Amino acid sequence: MKKIAGVLIGVLMMLVFASSANAKVILIDKTHSYDSDKYNFPAQYTDPTYGITIEIQSVQKIEGGIEILARAWKDGKQLGFGKDGSVEIERFKIFNPPILVDDPLGLIERRWINEKTGLEEVRKLREDPIQAIRESLAHTIHLVGKEGKNIVKDKIGSTTSTFYPDPDVESTSVDGLVNNDPVSATGWTIIHDAIAGTGAKPSATLDTFARVSCHSTSNTYDIITRSFFLFDTSTIPDSDTINSATLSIKGNGGTDTWVSGTKPNINIVASTPASNIDLVMDDFDQLGTTAFSTAKTTATWSTSAYNDFTLNASGLTAISKTSVSKFGARDMIYDAPNIEPTWASGQQVIFQGNYTDNVGTSSDPKLVVEHSASAPDTIPPTISSVSSSNIAPNSATITWTTDEPSTSQVEYGPTTSYGTLTTLDSNLVYSHNVNLTGLNTDTLYHYRVKSKDAANNEAISADYTFHTAVAPLSLRLPFRDGESWYVTQGNGQGASHQGNEYYAWDFNSVDDWGKPVLAPASGKVVDASAICLTENDLNDTCNSGWGNYVIIDYGNGKFGKLAHLRLVSVKKGQYVFQGEQVGTVGSTGKSSGPHIHYQTQNSSALGGQSIASSFVDVSSNGGVPIGCDCPNDVGTNRYTSGNTAPALIYHLDTALDSSNNGNNGTISTCLIAGCMGLNGTSSDYIEILNSSSLQLAGDVSIVFWLKPENAGSGRINFLDKSYFGEFSLILETDGSLSYYHGQSTSSFFSWVALGAGTIANGQGIRIAVTRNSAEAYMRTYVNGALVSITPYGGNIPSASTSPLKIGLGATGIPYKGKADEIAIYPRVLTDNEVNNEYYSSKP
User: Mean pLDDT in runs of 10 for the chain (843 residues)?
Assistant: First the structure.
């Protein structure tokens, strides 16, 4: 015996429901609450409500419900199913299937107070799972059946799923109402805009779906009711396509006394209650305003049958294949758009009907969804609008579109063989955006884009190209770090600088005779002359008036000229680093006194045309050059240099002629004018004794060129000051580069500065590593491009007394191969400076 709503009923173990004594019957497990009971399901029956004859092919229990395969006819014509009506036998799944049906003689009673009359009403039901399922199936077929013109014999469809909310008490999905019924009638704004209502009924049986009521007091209102219908639709396969859906709620009465203006209606909207299994008063404002179907009016509302709301595209998107689909109902004339009605005393519209019982009935709210397995997608996306933008010296952005959501990936390289593939972005999107980084400066790149759709169909674009930009030239002042010099002429402002000198700079300082003159940027010395007398003898014609000079090729179509020097300390053909001394201050050539003359120009010619330039390290005490009384240190327009000279420079120029006759040779396997070749033995390395200039525990930049021959033979400590001190760089066996610094063996920082395979035998590579102590960040560059950045936090370096070794360090495995143009700066080179340095040193 089972007690339902206070009434004891017998559970019949075997019930037979057949259209005749000889009808074929099919056994079915009772699926809702009685797993052990067996019921006979008729093979064929005709539903009187819809006039549909249904032939059952099979019935089986599934998780959470039952599955029925069935054919159907209406008015003697067979019905087809599926999107195109070609299915003869449809697969119907019913979840949370009902087991009660309405019966005026039923022993199960539901009692409630009618909101309109205030009187108690009674609903009588009987437990009859077979009849409940028959009625449910007939209504579903009424919704999805199509007049059969294209029926394919014995074709079995995918699925029509029918979902009911949980019976009380809910475990996955709730239905019910929330209303706002203030104790005293109030204005429209207060009653409508309330965040919380005054009552919530998650266990309603027969009650209001939507209501708008005016009070008898002028321009006041007493009730707004909104309803919620949640369905657990997670059984719909993720890969299925939802073809159509209908939400049906059964009417059971209603009220219409509206006399002023358009009558309220009812429609389906989205809902977002706080819980999937309960309703609270705070859910009053948790309904959407977008209509999901065609509204029902009091004229089209059925008070005794299902009211079917066919969901539109917006409604279909609200159906979840992984969780609970959340819908609601409300008035769309006044409530949803928040439009105050034209008031009339006592007028109201009430839409009333059945909610889910504490045991499901065949009159409960239901959601019928037609869905089908998607046909295999074999068509790749269509790629269009491929373009490159934001092209910088070391980066570019590639964009494109596809006609369906797809992944994003770019293949690129210096030729149509490409060679580099970006990390796959697996997000499926229509508009694609991929940033390329670590590119070489001033280089032509080929690229193509790749996209895969959800079915893994790949599309590959045609070949496209872009050309990376040249990094802005980063010049620093041509005198030592911390020194302040007067600007007597500069960048288009000067009395004597005209013609090809128009943009030249003149710098003066107290006692400037013989002071060091530094390279404003890294580059190759393409011309240098020291033939003029070292004192000012007014020999205006020496070297066409330029006196002793140095011209540096910055490698980007720009050159720097330093003139009127006293001494020249570099040779034509050699490389110079930014901040490296190239000569001393003099007054040779056409010069009225000692000063530094500098100009950026567009060619290597001695008389090349000057072009506008500026200095990144300028810290000025003044503005426009106005001259100075330099011997007496009088003037206001001084620039303070930040051109820190390297702590160490090794050019290793074994092919430069030391005779000053310019008979330089070349070694093709080196970077510039010769290089150092180490033979990989423990006795072949460079050792530099410790000095204060090498105890670099703060900012540092290390720049070097390698072409190894024994990479992979072990952990090669190519450059080592101190593993647990200032810095140490190790070529790992997998072609990566490791970096170390620290305080001790128990307090140190280690970092994979370059990934596996970056360094390979027989391949030259320009590497720069910088450490910014203020930011506590490390950066690594390959061939002028930033490729890695990482913080080192509290693991700070310390100064050691260890010597600096090149070619053999603490690991004990010597380096074999070439090395060239090594410099260590006690400051952080900027991205542009690293790029300029690489670009100007390219073979």
Answer: 27 28 33 42 86 92 92 93 91 92 86 72 86 94 89 90 86 92 93 95 89 95 96 93 95 93 97 96 97 96 95 96 96 97 96 84 93 84 97 94 96 93 94 93 92 93 94 92 86 78 90 93 95 69 93 93 95 93 94 92 95 82 49 65 89 70 67 86 91 94 96 95 94 96 88 94 96 94 90 90 93 94 94 90 77
Class of domain 484-644: mainly beta
Angle value at C-alpha 302, between 297 and 305, nearest 5 degrees? 150
pTM, 2 dp? 0.55
Rounded Cα–Cα distance for residues 235 and 64 (Å): 9
Which candidate, 766, 751, 780, places its Cα nearest to that of 839? Answer: 766
What stretches of 114-174 adopt beta strand conformation (E)?
Answer: 120-127, 146-147, 152-156, 159-163
Which residue matches tokens 């007054």?
587
Torsions phi, psi of 545, nearest 5? 90, -5
Evaluate whether the domain defined by 391-460 bears CATH number 3.30.43: no
Structure tokens at 279: 């309703």
Beta strands at 396-413 and 444-452: parallel, antiparallel or unpaired: antiparallel
Fold adopted by 649-841? Jelly Rolls (2.60.120)
Residue among 825, 84, 842 at smallest CA distance from 470:
842
CB atoms within 10 A of CB 537: 11
In this structure, how many other beta carbons lie within 10 angstroms of the beta carbon of residue 483? 18
SS3 content of the chain, % helix, strand, coil (to 5): 5, 45, 50
Residue that is written with structure tokens 């019982």 in the block:
357
Q: How far is CA 123 from the centre of its chain?
A: 56
CB within 8 Å of 770: residues ≥ 6 apart: 699, 700, 701, 702, 778, 779, 781, 828, 829, 834
Q: Spell out the domain ranges in the chain.
A: 2-157, 175-235+254-304+323-363, 391-460, 484-644, 649-841
Positive/negative CA dihedral, 573, 574, 580, 585: negative
What DSSP designation does 543 have?
G
Distance CA(378)–CA(701), nearest Å, equals 53
Q: Report the C-alpha gap between 175 and 365 in whole angstroms.
A: 8
CB 805 within 8 A of CB 748: no
Angle at 539 between CA 533 and CA 544, to 5 degrees: 100
Name the β-bridge partners of 433: 399
Cα 619 to Cα 641: distance, rounded to the nearest angstrom:
7
> What's 215's DSSP letter?
-
